[in-house]
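ASSEMBLY PREDICTION REQUEST
Request ID: AP-0331
Submitted by: J.K., bench scientist
Number of chains: two
Total residues: 564
Priority: normal
Notes: Please return the full assembly, not individual chains.
Input sequences:
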Amino acid sequence: MKIFLLLSIHFFISLTSQDDRDNFPKSFWRIAESVWKTESSQLTFKDLSIFESGYKKGVFYKVSNNQQLIGYLYIGKCNTCRAGGCKNIKQLNFAEGDYEYFKYFMLLDNDFKILQVKIFDYQATHGHEIMNKFWLSKFKGYNVSKTIVYGKNIDAISGATVSAESLIFDIEYIISLVSTIHIN
Amino acid sequence: MYKKAIFTVQLLLLSYFLFAQEKANVEANQLILGGYGEFTFNKKLDKNSLAYLDVPRFVLTGDYSFSGKTRLFSEIEFEHVKEVYVEQLWVQHKLHKNVNFRAGLLLVPVGIINEYHEPNTFNSVNRPLIDKYVVPTTWREIGAGFSGNFASLMLKYQVYVLNGFNGFDGVAHLGAQYPLRKARQKGAESFMSSPNFVSAIEFYGLPYITIGLANYFGKSQTLILENSAIETVDSSRVGINLLSFNSRVNIKALEARVQVYGIEFSNSAAYNEFAGYSDVDYLAKQVFGFYFELAYNVLNKMEKENGSLILFSRFEEFDTQYKMENDLSANSAYHVKSITNGLSWKPNLKIAFKVDIQNVYNDANAKWTTSLNLGTGFSF
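STATUS: Completed
Returned structure:
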């Protein structure tokens, strides 16, 4: 009976993660294969539900290859706005009506160190420059023990300050959260 | 009974629509207020000049989302404390991930400063000279078009049809010192005889570098109607073709900016004659202007709490009578060079305390004049 229950839970989880897979951006698969050096079909994703219920900004996954933990994935939304008039960049939740946002994903290794950050959807009038992959590559290697300082160890981008700060805030929040809670 | 049934159905329908309306908007009706402004002190460094103090602009912005797809953006501006303008007022609707439709009083997407003019985002107290004399910032007119972003190409674009410059409304407004500035209609009871077009792209896929290109073209607007003598109509307007190139480079503490403008006016000889101009007013056939700026943040190695202290130097050159039509003579006073050196202290990114020394040279005076400028710029 217990086995049956576990099996059905497992089945349910694999079903939901199967759904999630379909919604991953195309660019994710290419990057995942090159970063984790494996076929994308081998990878499995488990939503770790690390956020409080009602959190709408993103989902944090454990990534495994043949039952073996190989890292983590975060896919989320970030608020931004035009220069000036920004109240809600650092808001932790995301209202559906917000107009100015972008979506990104972040690959982490087993110790929550950043392997790669990519912005795959940008829906705001200003600040597109943060999608530049050379700029984003500067996030590589960061973990909870290092602070990211915009304009210092991450280059400033003229015209994209608000979006850049919003992304940094979000990344720091996610990494500090996953580093302080017990994840299994 | 029959009437009662209809009434009940109507009531149900009404309440359904009211409820549906409320549900659709429940998380959408969101107004974000903001603003920016600056105060300045300008003084020429000679004994015969006074100092001038001003609040060049104070702007309040309101950004309202009707839904996740539709929003209204507005800027209400106070210039020099007492003149009120609506500087931007447009509605945008998202049609597709990469395509937005936008209509209203729009900023013309030409050059860095016209779109990014919050005073804490540029060095120097006053805007670059070419953004006053060559391209008339803040340049805005009523129009409509499309904007969007192709993430995979690292490309942002804007394409609009919009109203053009007031070239003639009984008096000619295009000219020599300010080829375009005095002819802006700013969406205020503006008139149109033929539409103008602007397209702009910004490419941000290269390491450290952003590149912007823009083209604006069309005829200036005239109040003389088409059924008047054709020569008169044609003499009262000119063709305008403007090209803009800009690039911004950010590497560690170093920032470089380049901005180049070129404008070609067709039919300027006929226009000058029609307007009754003399050589100090002649509209040129070609106008050019550029600047190059280097800036260095000396606090880059320090902790964030110290903000940034930016040293900068900018060289500008422009000629609003660069080439003339029909051998008309150019006035050398309109060929100007300028060197601006200064610093901006930003305790945080939203505030800039600025000081600079600006040296300006024109060919007619053949000497440099120097001014001291102090200013504070902010956005919130």
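REVIEWER COMMENTS: The CA atoms of residues 71 and 164 of chain A lie 25 Å apart.
SIGN-OFF: pending second reviewer
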